[in-house]
Amino acid sequence: MSRSPRRKRPFSSPRRDRDERSVSDATGTRNTEVKQGVRKVVVDEDNAGQRVDNYLMAQIRDVPRSIIYRIIRKGEVRVNKGRVKPDTRLHTGDEVRIPPVTRKEKPDQVLPGSRVQGVMQDAVVFENDQMLVVNKPSGIAVHGGSGLDFGLIEVLRAARPESKFLELVHRLDRDTSGLVMVAKKRSALRYLQDELRQKRIRKRYHALVAGDWPRSLKRVDEPLLRFELSSGERRVRVDSAGKESLTLFRCLESFSGYSLVEASPVTGRTHQIRVHSAWAGHPIAGDDKYMDDVSLRAFRSVGGHRLMLHARALDFTLPSTGEAVHLEAPYDEAFGDTIARLTARRKVSE
Question: How far apart are CA 350 and CA 345, in angstroms?
Answer without folding.
Answer: 9
